[in-house]
Amino acid sequence: MRAVVMEEFGGPQVLRVRQVADPVPGPGQVVVAVAYASITFVETQVRAGDGPFGRPALPRVPGNGVGGRIVAAGPGVDPGLVGTVVVTTTGGEGGYAERALARAEDVVPVPAGLELRDAVALLADGRTALLLHRQAEIKPTERVLVEAAGGGVGSLLVQLAAAAGAHVIGAAQGDAKAELVTSLGAAAYVDYTRPGWLDRVRAAAGGAGLDLVFDGVGGSIGTEAIGALRDGGRVSVYGMASGADAEHDEARLQARSIEVIGLTSAPSPAQARALIADALALAADGTLRPVIGQTFPLEEAAAAHRAIESRATVGKTLLIPTGHDGD
């Protein structure tokens, strides 16, 4: 089969398509014919050698999330799963390929009426957004700022917060994302690359302090956004797309009774699977609309990484292997 193989750390050019052996399922494993593979910002960091969990062993096939049809089952796996269309994590690697291995316990069937590409777009981002949303416990009329609101997780957080009755302000880079973000339920949109962006956030919040900030950017943007919280507000920290964490003055946060919440620990495999299933159900009933801004064939994995790193993408980016068995 064909797969994207990474033999060194570096720029997007290190992602090269190679012919590799088809995966063979071991005990408790299945093989998925990959129709769509998820691409995440963290994967671009791992490729560059700057991932949050250190440098993995090389060579490797990147990709931690795929969707497609199960074509083989290993020992101990219900053979009735073969033929089922699923989304699944792959254990951290192997997704950028025509076929991928996964643990049978990780697969989540795609509900009837939900497009497979939408299900894959929700695999990582839907799980993350739903977990953050539940941890934040948003109340109606609260003033909520969502950073990176045009991205995969951010676009879902906008929808979830709006559905909870919050007054949502979406912030991202560039004016081109304004129409998308407001169509998802945000009451206002702000470009945080422009001077005075926080003044516009305060104006959109009616001049009052924010109740909640979803900080997926970190750096100076995250730091400034935290400063716009009211006393007793909350910040949900889940990412550092800027490459750095927001600066938290713990004593000042404590003095202002500002609570820091977010992804303090990864959900267990069972919890992650339940979150994915819930996100897919919300999409199937129309509550969530995943935004797929761009797709790339397997040969253009490097171009996909460049697009994500340049902040030129909107919503989710998917990789589409050619020659797959499809859905």
How does this model look, in words?
With 327 residues, the protein is of the alpha/beta class. The chain folds into 2 domains: 2-109 and 291-320, Quinone Oxidoreductase, Chain A, domain 1, CATH 3.90.180; 129-262, 3-Layer(aba) Sandwich (Rossmann fold). It contains 10 helices and 15 strands. The protein has helices at 41-48, 116-123, 125-136, 152-163, 178-183, 197-204, 219-227, 250-255, 269-284, 301-309; strands spanning 2-6, 15-19, 29-39, 65-73, 85-89, 99-103, 108-109, 143-146, 167-172, 188-191, 210-215, 229-237, 259-262, 292-297, 316-320. The strands form 3 sheets. Strands 3, 4, 5, 6, 7, 14 and 15 form a 7-stranded mixed beta sheet that branches. A 6-stranded parallel beta sheet has the order 10-9-8-11-12-13, with helices on both faces. It has a two-stranded antiparallel ribbon with strand order 1-2. Helix 10 links the parallel strand 14 (292-297) and strand 15 (316-320).
Gist?
With 327 residues, the protein is an alpha/beta fold.
CATH topology descriptor of the largest domain: Quinone Oxidoreductase, Chain A, domain 1
Mean pLDDT: 92
Task: Give me the strand/helix succession.
Answer: EEEHEEEEHHEHEHEHEHEHEHEHE
Largest sheet: 7 strands, mixed
Q: Strand tally, please?
A: 15
Specify the structural class: alpha/beta
At the first level of CATH, what is the class of the largest domain?
A: Alpha Beta
> DSSP helix count?
10
Number of domains: 2
